[in-house]
Amino acid sequence: FPSQTVTGNFARVIHGLNAKQLTDQVIQRSKRMILDTLGVGLLGTSTEVCHKVAQYSKIYSSDLSSTIWGHLDFQLPPLYAAFVNGVAVHSMDFDDTWHPATHPSGAVLPAVIALSEAFPQKKKISGLDLLLAFNVGIEVQGRLLHFSREARNIPKRY
């Protein structure tokens, strides 16, 4: 038996990532991905599907809250804010993509922002922390996609 499992190795790599590993190129590309995702998400808040999930999510409450993009007066528990904002991004289908087909930022950024808003004021995270969390999320998604049999040969199947 190998001394380490795929899951254990995956967890060690992800846990070991830190802000010092973010090169200038990665930071610049991440900022562009984030800006693109926020723009598409803000536009997506006007879609019918976004309105429906926002109305549905209003039934949930918690002591912690995060903002629905484009609606500073509309806050939900972080899980549901991430859900609504993620739907807003995906509802436009203009968010970034990579091969094999997936939309990395639309799944990661809403969760990262919702969680960052939920931190107590005295423990707010820095912009660099947010960039690291975003990139860790993108890395996790990319590695899971790489391991997925479903992702293989997507262009040939569609």
TrEMBL record:
A Pfam family: MmgE_PrpD_N
Species of the source: Phainopepla nitens (Phainopepla)
GO CC term (a single one): mitochondrion
GO biological process terms held by the UniProt record: defense response
Primary gene name: Acod1_0
Domain (MmgE/PrpD N-terminal): residue spans on this chain: 9-151
Superkingdom assignment: Eukaryota
GO molecular function terms attached to this record: aconitate decarboxylase activity
Family per similarity comment: Belongs to the PrpD family.
Coiled coil region boundaries: none
PANTHER family: 2-METHYLCITRATE DEHYDRATASE-RELATED (PTHR16943), CIS-ACONITATE DECARBOXYLASE (PTHR16943:SF11)
Protein name per UniProt: IRG1 decarboxylase
